[in-house]
Amino acid sequence: MLATVQTVGFFKTWQEDYGRWTYTLTTLLGDWLYQAEERFGPRDQSWTILGIEVGTSRPQIWYPGGSERKHVVIQLSHRCQANEAVARYELAQEVVHLLAPNGEGAALNIEEGVATLFANGLGQPVTAPSYVRVLGYVEALLRIDPDAIKKLRKERSRFQGFDPKFIQDHIAGVPDQLAADLCEIYKD
Questions:
Q1: What is the Cα–Cα distance from 160 to 163, expressed in whole angstroms?
Q2: What DSSP designation does 82 have?
Q3: What's this model's pTM, rounded to 2 decimal places?
Q4: Which residues of the chain does CATH 3.30.2010 include?
């Protein structure tokens, strides 16, 4: 038996079959961040993850006090307050951005594509055309080398440090156009 209770924009779930335990957005964040690190490489621990806020117009990463403080918050949209599926979708899409926060800089297509890949893998299908496009770029890269993201992040942890030459120097067989597409600034 699965029950869900809304608690101030967060969702508490317990499942009696496995004993009493809870998953809130906060505990999902911890679980999913662990999974993202396992799949794509460790996060930059010099940044402090302060938590999750709900109520913005769109999901995003926020840097309270500016990037020099190295604090980061996931902000989820107001739509999450009454819809657990939307909350999970938005959280899943934002988790990858915690691996190497960019300090308010624009995300590259490769980072948004990895975020979309991750969310889809958690059963949170992402269907917006801009996300589907960048997911296609990342899937093409992973067909060339299934460990490409982990290999690239081992050399440069921040996605914003990637450029076409860097990708091609570290992953053999990446076509020029794919390398360029991956390194463009993401646009909705």
A1: 8
A2: G
A3: 0.88
A4: 26-104
